[in-house]
C-alpha cells in the first residue's frame, strides 16, 4: 500500500500552499478570541474537557476501546477533543496548521499535571506534511473533523496522508459537518422567520471560496488582523471516493440530525444535550461520521 501514499500524492501545489497560508494567518488571529470564549470554556477544565461537550455517544461506540492506542488528531485547533481522547486512555498527538492554536493547546495540556491527559503532545504542521513532520510515527487511530475538511483543497491528497499515518489495521474516524449543512443558509422573511434555503454549493468544482468575516463561530470580540479565510466544498461522495482511492476500506457511515451547538436560532435542544432542527422542519443530516480502516495486509 505504500505506493499509494508517495510524496507527490500527499503534497499540495504552491498555489494551494499560498491559500492555506491565508488560513494559517486567520486561525492565528481567531485563536485569542476562541481561548477567551464561553464556547470553548477554557477557564474551567471540567467544562472545556467534558466529553459530552464535544462527542456524541455513538462516537465512543464507533471508536471502541482507546486505552493504550496511538492516536493522532488532525486539525486539532485548541486541542480540547485531543485531550478528551487522551482521557479515554489514548496516547494522543494533536496536529494543527496554526502556531497560535498549538501554543494554546499546549498551555491547556500543561494544566493536566497527572492522569492520562498529561502526556498529550501537539505539533504545528500543515496536514499535508503530517507524515514527514511526525517522522516514523504510525498510528492505530487517526481522528479528525467537525470543521476540518472545508479547509483542505484536495481530498485525494488528504486521504493519502491519512493512509500514510495509519499502521496496517489502523482506522480513520471522521466526524464532520455534513456538506448539506454547509449548503444551507437562512433567508429572513416577514412571514416565516428564517427558513433554510440552499444558498451554497454542495459539490466541489468551483475552486476556492474566499470569506472575510470579522466575527467567528464563537462568542467574543471581533477578530483583529487577518480576517480572510479560504474554504473548499466537498460532497459526501468525494470524501468516500478519496478514502477508498487511498486503499482504505469504509466500515461505517452515519448521518446525524444533531449538532453539538445550535447553528441556527430555531434549533432545539435534545435529551442528549445536542441540537437539532424543530419538528416543523424536514429531517436532514447535519453531521456525518465515517470509520475507515487500512487493511491489515
From TrEMBL:
SUPFAM superfamilies: S-adenosyl-L-methionine-dependent methyltransferases. This is Class I SAM-dependent methyltransferase. Pfam families: Methyltransf_12. The keyword Methyltransferase applies. The lineage of its organism: Bacteria, Bacillati, Actinomycetota, Actinomycetes, Kitasatosporales. It comes from the Bacteria. The keyword Heme does not apply. It comes from Streptomyces odorifer. InterPro entries: Methyltransf_12, SAM-dependent_MTases_sf. One of its GO terms (molecular function) is methyltransferase activity. Gene3D superfamilies: Vaccinia Virus protein VP39. GO terms for biological process: methylation. Keywords: Methyltransferase, Transferase. Residues 73-172 form the Methyltransferase type domain.
